[in-house]
Fold:
Amino acid sequence: MPTKPKKTTPAGSEPHQHGGNRKPFTTLRDWLAHLASTGRLAVARPNVSLKHELAAIAKTLDGRQATLFPQPGGHPLAVVSGLVSAREWIAEAMGVEHADMLARFEHAAANPLPCAVVERAPVQEIVETSPDLLRDLPIPTHNEHDSGPYITAGLIIAKNPRTGRQNVAIVRLQVSAPRKLGALLLPRHTNHFFDMAEAKGDALHVAIVIGVDPLTLLASQAIAPLDQDELEIAGALQGRPLPVVRCKTSDMLVPAEAEIVVEGRILTKLREPEGPFGEFPQYYGDRADRHVIEIDAITRRKDALYHTIGGGGLEHLVLGGIPREATLLAHLKRSFPGVRDVHLSHGGVCRYHLFVKIAKRSEGEAKNIMMGAFAGHYDVKQVIVVDEDVDIHDPQQVEWAVATRFQADRDLLVVTESQGSRLDPSTRDGVGAKMGIDATRPLAAPEMKFKKIRVPGEEAVDLARDVDAGALAGWAKKLQG
Ligand code: MN
Structure:
């Protein structure tokens, strides 16, 4: 059976040590310094164009190195990209092993930590009250048919007009005019708050936070209940109450140690064209009339770093994928104690294809687990259930399980005409089919029938000891005769 070559730790990537414990990273700058000291930060030449060129370089290094762009397009502020474009990097930022990452995230989501309000904050070193997005910030244009520059790594913070509780999300923000953004609000919490405000004739204050640490970025993607402030999940992940400061033009609280905050309002009774924009499924989200944000102020550090996420890049995929995995794993474990782990595969755009590892206890269980997963999130389109001897982070091993343990006439589940992702172009406006594949061994099968082959001692081979590099030259000469 094919197996992935074993991953080696990059040279010098010692865990973040502090007092003997691995501590989570709490600021963007600490994280970038850590990437730099472990060979995972590239610095581009100055003055790279903000239109496509910056995104092209970041995409080429995606998953290998984060990139820092000094003076992009001649702008005084630097751009950074690709901060968390590998799932192992996120575990590292959390200070845990990769295998413990989902459990750690779910624990933080279940045990949020209230924020700590501070009076003075680095993110308010400079306050610009006559803001001009196009002049004040280096905002790149990413994919070929994007309608123009987009803020892609902006955490949009809004307050529930009834309860005063905050929400955090990342939405795509089109620069429509020097003081105007077009926003795609999905039918979730921010949109719900705006609907409440608009019904009373009020605009909704928002703060768009750019340049935060990896764990605050991750927390913003938590599938949390309404009125659970995702900044409190960030605090739990960081192991300290997140320091927050009050905005200059509203009473919203934003991360004090962030790089940039854009303050504004979602306007009532106004929708304007937004899109197209290159999205996570590697296709464009369409152009349509969408919400409009008017900008009131921009606050930032003096030498602020502007973070951009390439639309559809690994950072985009991984950041959305891990919180979903954590939520789906917790959801499935509640009903099925045999579920060991889940993975949203890269090929399935970290949203659509779910691999589930189980310790099977009864026949038919895999199909119930599939139905549970489909119910867990409407984006889940295909579920493959495998046994414990399959590495679900290796797509070749999963395919091997399907090739040797699955028969389509008895192990396949198809659900027609169900709710799926609108961004999946093969659906009819989001309506499509679900497919489940049971690639587990029958419990009654004789032990040898599905026993995976192995060579005794293969795990113990040490190539440094067992390969004689010095003997090669002599043998090469002898073989040539
Ligand atoms: Mn929320």
Remarks:
- The pocket of manganese (II) ion is lined by residues 167, 189, 224, 230 (CB under 6 Å).
- Residues 314-335 form the longest helix (22 residues).
- Residues 336-447 form a domain with the UbiD C-terminal domain-like fold (CATH 3.40.1670.10).
